[in-house]
Amino acid sequence: MYGIKGISGKVAGFFRLSGELSYFAGRYFTEVWKPPFEIRELLHQCYNVGNRSFPLVGITGFIIGLVLTLQTRPTLQEFGAVSWMPAMVGISIVREIGPVVIALICAGRVASGIGAELGSMRVTEQIDAMEVSGTNPFKFLVVTRITATTLMVPVLVIIGDVLALYGSFLIEHLKGNVSFQLYFNQVFDSLEFSDLIPATVKTFFFGFAIGLVGCFKGYYCTKGTVGVGTAANTAVVAASMLIFILDFIAVLISDIFYEL
Amino acid sequence: MNKENAITPVFPVGKGKEDVVIRIKDLKKRFGDNHVLNGFNMELYQGENLVIMGKSGSGKTVMIKCLVGLMQPDSGSIEVMGKDITKLDRKALDLLRADIGFLFQGSALYDSMTVRENLEFPLRRHKERFRDRADTETLVLEALKSVGLSHTTELMPAELSGGMKRRVALARTLIMNPRIILYDEPTSGLDPITAKEIIELMRIIQARYRTSALIITHDVDCARVISDRMILLVDGINYAEGTYRELQRSADPQVKAFFK
User: Do residue B125 and residue A135 have CB atoms under 8 angstroms apart?
Assistant: First the structure.
């Protein structure tokens, strides 16, 4: 009896949370078109999300390229298919590994940061102070951050992809003496617009999800400093889960288009 | 502990009904089963310093948050300068809020902004209000000078002491040239000397800017020095009302407990 109650409570909690998150997203789409537009704050947030995440994303992307090539090379060598390496790495990085891994890194770096920052502003009454001063805190804090992550995560993914491909090229160059031109010609020959467009479009959704969850958790933070920690932590977990769910949906949709 | 035990309210000398700047009638607010405000009534007169005292959890902060529209009451009316704030739309409420300064308990300075930016922030939404006044720079310096901190413009809130933060928060309130100032525990968390300085500053400000003030405090010294009139809030109702001296002489055990 208790078990059923517990499960139904959790299911109800999940649907309530989903409803609240959907309402929060709806409020974003209502507010984003209304003036005043906080351009200065938006640029500041773009700088925060983009510039400050760049070193982490760059290093991670580069290492992914190195490791992927090093791990795959012996197997391809066994089948005499090393010449397929640029195409294989290119497709896997551009279509799947790059967007998902970079988005997960951004979830860890950005969603937790936003959750903790807004959470701390909530518990120290800074958001209330903004409201009392006549500024709409949702517009100033939430709309700018969600827009910034939606715009900057795709840019970070492109940078990460480029560095991953460069890392892969370095290994190929060292181990197989492949030239830069040959390597990248093979990469781009293997890629089509049908690979690039869905992969790029889904990164906007990943960015939106990261900003949305981070802001939602921080904006409604309660229970003092413990609540701030919880907001940061749950923001990362929820954003990561959302990224996987969105990726699954994106793959399903692009598969439908492939079949047409 | 019922209303019959309460001391007869004192009508402030020289003030008539036309001078009322805030009128709260039968205010009720509950959170689940917790009835925080049970029909609170209050009038604040032009130029008056009204102190509201009560134990923790007696509903003081909830009342003051309802007063600026940060919380919606369950029932009752709140008139600020003749306007019922529970019925105002967002734009009208923001305009009215420009006339109300709010000093938060923890100062609520924006951590990511300098002192100058903290003071400039409320001006952004009310530019038309300051068309005839000096430029922003002069307003900021003027407000900081009035709290004795004109040298702190480029400092971050983290670089200020507790007392300095409270002063800067007061300057941020004053920059809007409000007609009413709401103080939420203005001396809490401060050492006795700094607390006295803040109380003195409140007196100076009241004399210079001719504001009406609603002060929520536990600090009996603060109430003695600053109050024209006091209300004791017990279990969500105005239990006793009068001048400091009248309440101090009260034989009611609940009232006496505050002055021990």
Answer: yes
Separation between Cα atoms, residue A162 and residue A57, nearest integer Å: 11
Of A126, A130, A134, the CB nearest to B98: A134
CB atoms within 10 A of CB B138: 10
Do the Cβ atoms of A126 and B94 come within 8 Å? no
Q: Tell me which residue range forms the domain holding A233.
A: 38-259
pLDDT digits (tens, 9 = 90+) for A16-48: 989 999 999 999 999 999 888 889 999 999 999
The answer to whether residue A26 sits within a structural domain is no
Residues of B in contact with A124 (CB under 8 A): 106, 108, 111
Q: B97 vs A133: CB contact, 8 Å cut-off? A: yes
Q: What is the pTM of this model?
A: 0.87
* Contact predicate B230/B53, CB 8 Å: yes
pLDDT at residue A1 is higher than 70: no
From the options 3.40.50.20, 2.60.120.1440, 3.40.50.300, 3.40.50.2000, give the CATH code of B48-69+87-259: 3.40.50.300
Taking CB atoms and an 8 Å cutoff, what residues of chain B touch A40? Answer: none
Percentage above 70 pLDDT, chain B? 90
Is A126 in contact with B108 (Cβ distance < 8 A)?
yes
Counting the structural domains of chain A, the total is 1
| Torsion from C-alpha of A127, A133, A134, A137, nearest 10 degrees | -20
pLDDT reading at B3 higher than 60: no
Residue ranges of domains in chain B = 48-69+87-259
Minimum-distance CB partner of B106 among A124, A130, A135: A124
Banded model confidence at residue B6, pLDDT cuts 50, 70, 90: very low
Residue B63 has, within 13 A of its CA and on its CB side, a CA count of: 38
**Do the beta carbons of residue B239 and residue B5 sit within 8 Å?**
yes
Name every chain A residue with its beta carbon within 8 A of the beta carbon of B100: 132
